[in-house]
Specification:
The protein has 13 helices and 19 strands. Strands 1, 2, 3, 4, 5, 16, 17, 18 and 19 form a 9-stranded mixed sheet that branches. About 30% of the residues lie in helices and about 25% in strands. The chain has 2 domains: about 110 residues, Urease, subunit C, domain 1 (Roll); about 300 residues, Alpha-Beta Barrel (TIM Barrel), CATH 3.20.20.140. By secondary structure, it is of the alpha/beta class. Strand 7, helix 2 and strand 8 form a beta-alpha-beta unit. Bound molecules: (4S)-2,6-dioxohexahydropyrimidine-4-carboxylic acid.
Length: about 425
């Protein structure tokens, strides 16, 4: 049930800039924005003193694990984690069991999403079972509102099939998102191929396993004219390829995950599988390139690749443990703490640019203005806190940031007009 809320004493930061203002929310809509607004009768006041009031964050890359892997996460728990992280919308990845490769599974996840704390947009698979052999009925899934399609967790290996998928997608007005990994080159690699892999005796996968597919898909984008979104780019070479493609006017967009601008392959020296992720943590030069790409707009968005895994999976030996890390509850603070960018730039990367890529611009990431859907987050940019996995709302605990002190914390989240997080506590 939508509420009547007044957000008092904050500073709005949105696509139109920054200004101090109160915000009134009623019936799911922002109804007034201005100085010293009179609260409607019965309104709940949310204190925003010293805080930034922004459009809610939008995650392009969330693994909610439902259906099939509910021991790791559910739509409900993942959406709660998202709300605590300041998100008002997430795109649910299709590598579930079964995969989201038909209208029926899309409808199932959408149905779960309707009961969740934040908006859940569903991504569909490009190929049946994500096996890279046959295209899915994308038109049927697009008819249900699916805007992004990906085989994430795997890249589409066959260039001919990817070409056909791009032609099909552009006819439907939807976007393909690629997990860039050449299987033949990455085979057997458990971490980034480099000096640390040699020293630790862990087989590596080279940066080129990612870059070959980025280069190939840029070529296919040129051939077909269809837009391509690059998921979780992690290498200096990938960033350079996307920069050149954009300079050539091609319709490419790209994201990077927080762990790829905050951690290096040196972390793997602990042999702790919490640092195992795909694409793997890279070297310091790659981290610098990802940061530069985020700063200069080559990389359009920060996306979490929130990948929950239960303790029994992440406690396996490094080579047997599944790749993936939690992201939703730490992404904003990591970006504010580590990127040395103004808060406006961080929010562009986390809110309005990803909202557009996800096709959610009508409800998400918009300016904080009267008449707009009330998807908002209130951030205390100075608050310091220590990451404690035990306090996370995710059903899993596999964060690589346990014990790390971060600056910047979500105080309130308002999703579709409902205060789903108040004073840092989830209410749904
Ligand atoms: O580390 C990862 N985990 N990378 C992926 O692409 C998939 C994800 C998962 O689903 O666990």
């Amino acid at each position: 049930m939508a509420e009547t809320l007044v957000l008092r004493g904050g500073r709005i930061v949105d696509v139109n800039g920054t200004r101090p203002a109160d915000v009134i929310v009623a019936g799911g809509i922002v109804t007034a924005v201005g100085a010293d607004l009179e609260a409607p009768a019965g309104a709940t006041a949310l204190d925003a003193t010293g805080c930034v009031v922004a459009p809610g964050l939008v995650d392009l890359h969330t693994h909610l694990r439902e259906p099939g892997r509910e021991e790791a996460e559910t739509v409900e728990t993942g959406a709660r984690a998202a709300a605590l992280g300041g998100y008002t919308a997430v795109v649910a990845m299709p590598n579930t069991e079964p995969a989201v490769d038909s209208a029926a599974v899309v409808a199932q996840v959408q149905d779960l999403g309707r009961r969740a704390a934040v908006e859940v947009a569903v991504a569909g698979a490009i190929t049946v079972g994500r096996r890279g052999e046959r295209l899915t009925p994308m038109a049927e899934m697009a008819a249900l509102g699916v805007h992004l399609f990906t085989d994430d967790g795997a890249g589409v290996q066959d260039a001919g099939l990817m070409r056909r998928a791009l032609e099909y997608a552009s006819g439907l007005g939807v976007v393909l998102a690629q997990h860039c990994e050449d299987n033949a080159l990455a085979a057997g690699g458990q971490m980034h191929e480099g000096a640390w892999a040699s020293r630790l005796g862990i087989p590596g996968q080279p940066a080129e396993a990612e870059e070959l597919m980025v280069a190939r898909d840029i070529a296919l984008c040129r051939l077909t004219g269809a837009p391509v979104h690059f998921l979780h780019l992690s290498t200096a070479g990938s960033v350079a390829l996307v920069r050149a493609a954009k300079a050539a006017g091609l319709p490419v967009t790209a994201e990077a995950a927080p762990h790829h601008f905050t951690l290096t392959d040196e972390s793997v020296a602990s042999y702790d599988p919490v640092f195992k992720v795909n694409p793997p943590l890279r070297g310091a030069t790659d981290v610098e390139a990802v940061r530069a790409g985020l700063a200069d707009g080559t990389l359009d968005a920060i996306a979490t690749d929130h990948a929950p895994h239960p303790p029994e999976a992440k406690e396996l030996p490094f080579d047997q443990a599944p790749p993936g890390m939690l992201g939703l509850e730490t992404a904003l603070a990591l970006a504010l703490s580590e990127l040395a960018l103004p808060v406006e730039a961080v929010l562009a990367l986390l809110s309005w640019r990803p909202a557009r890529i996800a096709g959610l611009g009508a409800t998400q990431g918009g300016p904080v203005a009267a008449g707009r859907p009330a998807n908002l987050c209130v951030i205390d940019p100075e608050a310091r806190w220590v990451v404690d996995p035990a306090r996370m709302a995710s059903r899993s605990r596999n964060t690589p940031y346990a014990g790390r002190e971060l600056t910047g914390r979500v105080r309130h989240t308002v999703a579709a007009g409902v205060a789903v997080v108040v004073d840092g506590e989830a209410r749904r």
